[in-house]
Design brief:
alpha+beta, 2 domains, membrane, protein tyrosine kinase activity, Capsular biosynthesis protein, Bact_polysacc_biosynth/exp
Length: 241
């Protein structure tokens, strides 16, 4: 006999295991909050912008051909900025306890589409170090590109600065807790239905019918203790009469 589950049965299961679902969700949110606030290292972000132009001395006389030439150079510059030739000098100047390969993972170089402005973004656990790395990388690149490519077409447009109260960009405790709430809720619902599926006890006449594969021809209503007591009292009174 094929077993079917109605929508009403689903709601009954959710209502029956509501405490379990709530508990699972609360535990997931609490665990996520504890990990986010106490165990994950805050990471700060700092960015600087450089401008790639044809003539460093006058950036107001560009033509379309100059801009196109500069745009073609930007992809090459993006690679050079994160190369050991640049980052090793940044590490040396700042006396950082890291390697060019490790520092590469902290730096993101990106330019907007059809833009000559290149953004150098740095992530670090120390906001001051992030600012120093961003500014030093831009300065070193500006100086070294003259030697590497024999051109002087890079200007620092906006240096990296640190605010009065810098806030980390990650982790985001509220986002993590929101995700944990969804996962905890789904887990709780899953456990509730699993427990209901594994529960093979007979609860009502439908369970008996499905178990024996036989039709029900009669039911015995449950009798409470109070009803039994009332019946005994009535029988006793009749006998006295």
């Amino acid at each position: 006999m094929e077993e079917t589950i109605s929508l009403q049965d689903l709601f009954k299961t959710l209502k029956k295991r509501l405490l379990l679902i709530i508990l699972t969700t609360v535990v997931a949110i609490t665990a996520s909050g504890v990990v986010s606030f106490l165990f994950l290292t805050p990471i700060y972000q700092s960015s600087t912008q450089i401008l790639v132009n044809q003539e460093k001395t006058d950036i107001s006389t560009f033509n379309a051909q100059d801009i196109q030439t500069n745009l073609q150079l930007i992809n090459t510059y993006n690679v050079i900025i994160k190369s050991p030739a640049i980052l090793s000098k940044v590490i040396e100047q700042l006396d950082l306890n890291t390697t060019p390969a490790a520092l590469t993972n902290q730096i993101t170089v990106k330019n907007e589409q059809n833009s000559q402005v290149v953004n150098i973004t740095v992530h670090d656990a120390n906001p001051n170090v992030a600012v120093d790395i961003a500014n030093t990388t831009a300065t070193v690149f500006q100086n070294e590109i003259i030697k590497l490519m024999k051109v002087d077409n890079v200007s620092i447009l906006t240096p990296a600065l640190i605010g009065e109260n810098p806030s980390p960009v990650k982790p985001d405790p509220m986002l993590n807790m929101a995700i944990a709430a969804v996962i905890g809720l789904m887990l709780g619902v899953g456990i509730a239905f699993l427990l209901e599926y594994l529960d093979t006890t007979v609860k009502n006449e439908q369970d008996v019918e499905e178990l024996l594969n036989l039709p029900i021809i009669g039911l015995i209503s449950p009798i409470s203790d109070q009803e039994i007591l009332d019946t005994k009292v009535q029988v006793t009174q009749r006998r006295k009469r």
